[in-house]
Amino acid sequence: MLKIQNVTGGYSNNPILRNIDIEVQNGDFFALLGPNGSGKTTLFKLITGQLPIQKGKVLLSGKDISSYSKLEKAKKIAVLSQDTSVSFDYTVEEIVSLGRYPHQKGILKNLSKKDWHIIEEVMELTKVTEFRHTQFRKISGGEKQRVLLAKALAQEPELLLLDEPTNHLDIKHTFQLLDLLKKRQEEKGLTIFSILHDLNVASLYADRFALLYNGSLLKVGDASLLKEVDTLNKIYQVQIHVQPHPTVPKPQLLLAPSLPNSTHSTFFKGNYKINNNEQFVHVQFQKPLRTISNGMVGNGIQWIKDYCIFSCKQYSTIPPEEEIQTIMEQYSITPEQTVATIVEGNIGDVVEVEREIEDTKILIIVTPTKMNEKIRGFNMMVFMDGYFNEGALVNSLLIATKEKMKAMQQFGMDEANETNEALYLAVTQKGDKSVTQRAVEATLREMVQLAVKQVYQKEKVVV
Ligand SMILES: Nc1ncnc2c1ncn2[C@@H]1O[C@H](COP(=O)(O)OP(=O)(O)OP(=O)(O)O)[C@@H](O)[C@H]1O
Questions:
Q1: Which segments constitute the ABC transporter domain (predicted)?
Q2: Rounded to 5 degrees, what angle do the CA atoms 34, 38, 40 make?
Q3: Residue 108's pLDDT band (boundaries 50, 70, 90)?
Q4: Does residue 241 lie in a domain region?
Q5: Which CATH number does the domain housing residue 52 bear?
Q6: What range defines the domain where residue 389 resides?
Q7: 207 and 315 within one domain
Q8: Does ligand 1 have an atom closer than 6 angstroms to the CB of 16?
Q9: Assigned domain for 265 exists
Q10: 36 lines ligand 1 (CB under 6 A)
């Protein structure tokens, strides 16, 4: 549909953009990304003919774009730029009807029945019908944006060029506008080429992406381009973390403030305290840790400061969340960053095991759940002072579980024991990213074994 071939160009003799090659396929939603000043608007202007191309060419449906007449071009391309100013004092409806101009026939260029049908349809789609008779200058920036989109759609273009179309829009209208464009793309095969600033929004809607940096094309590709964190960190100069969207199969970026980040905290020494008796264990840290857990409250992956296990004689019919809330109130534990589980039986004394491997400190806190003075299960909290990605977190969780089972079997307990056991694994996310997972794994195994053994020794269980 649109082929940008080795294009160089810019303002007078200053070629802002150099050797740009981009191909936009028929029916694609293509997002042009890049930081401020990277040349996105300049490229836009080179395509629309507002700026002369110094080298290379732009092809539209295989034909040099400069060989199209103005009217021919207007039948194929509609442009929605950032400039929402309009020279005359038109009403909204008049502006939208201007979009039909390239299709009007005859000398008088009157609007036909079909033209009116399309005008009504696009005004409905963009939700501007209600102010159709209002002067364009009297509506808000976001409403103007929608009216100009209606005008662009009234043109019935094959290709829609958009320069940051969501600039003036709030979240609701941003998503409404992009939903509308996506529908138009899917139902009518509209090809969309849009400058977008918000990488997460771009990820949700676009099929292909181009990344401009300093006037050069850095990357072209599908959504996996947004997973190239090192490239994005470099060109946007912010700390970016990528993660999958929980319901849409697209990546989403999380940004971190560039505040001083201490390499390693000394979080084990004096930075946590343990309260423990037969009814509960409460491990409290001064700062939250990224935690993966099977808690009844605060489960999944969350930032947690308070790690609780409460005991009960027998599970009641009250939902555990409510029961936990009551218990937490009783002990004055705030619920904001808390993970908590209720287990059946009494809670035994805690055992703490601490190690350091390759600069990563690991602390394991284990408590047994007991019934009739017999150990029925083990609750385990693993704290690690280092950076762990999600794969490493899941892996560590698996190792801790497996090793606990093995240790329990060595002491004659079988896994058929149907008690609820708490497993919390927490990391500080500080320090060097390249913790050698293998070394951590081996240490973790040894620590879990030791912790379980010490619980048996403490509880004076004879094997
Ligand atoms: N009219 C102009 N005359 C000369 N240079 C210009 C002109 N407009 C922009 N530039 C320069 O061209 C470079 C690219 O600007 P451009 O507007 O294309 O960037 P952009 O990627 O669209 O940025 P933004 O995200 O801020 O809109 C900038 O260095 C800018 O200073």
A1: 2-239
A2: 70
A3: low
A4: yes
A5: 3.40.50.300
A6: 272-458
A7: no
A8: yes
A9: no
A10: yes
Helix (H, G, I), strand (E, B) or coil at 342: strand
CA 178 to CA 444: how far, in whole Å? 48
Note whether 251 and 384 are same-domain residues. Answer: no
d(CA 350, CA 344): 17
Distance (angstroms) between ligand 1 centre and the Cα of 41 equals 7
Q: Whose CA is nearest to atom 29 of ligand 1?
A: 37
User: Which of 7, 12, 13, 16 to mutate to test ligand 1, by most ligand atoms within 8 A of the CB atom?
Assistant: 16
- Do 442 and 319 share a structural domain? yes
CA-closest residue to ligand 1 atom 2: 11
Q: Is the C-beta atom of 345 inside 6 A of ligand 1?
A: no
- Strand 423-427 to 280-293 pairing: antiparallel
pLDDT of residue 452: 92
As a whole number of angstroms, the distance between CA 413 and CA 252 comes to: 44
**Alpha-carbon span 91 to 138, nearest angstrom:** 9
Which atom of ligand 1 is nearest the CA belonging to 45?
Answer: 18
Distance (angstroms) between ligand 1 centre and the Cα of 37 equals: 5
> Is any ligand 1 atom within 6 A of the Cβ of residue 40?
yes
Co-location of 34 and 134 in the same domain: yes
Q: Is 81 a pocket residue for ligand 1 (Cβ < 6 Å)?
A: no
**Residue with the two structure tokens 């071009």:** 73
In this predicted structure, the answer to whether residue 399 has a pLDDT above a threshold of 50 is yes
- pLDDT tens track for 244-278: 998 999 999 998 877 665 555 555 667 889 999 88
State residue 434's pLDDT score.
60
Residue 412 has pLDDT above 70, yes or no: yes
pTM given for the model? 0.82
Tell me: the pLDDT tens digits for 45-70? 999 888 989 999 999 999 999 888 88
Checking ipTM against 0.95, whether it exceeds it is: yes
CA atoms within 13 A on the CB side of 304: 28
Whether 261 is in a domain gets the answer no
- Rg for the chain, CA atoms, rounded: 31
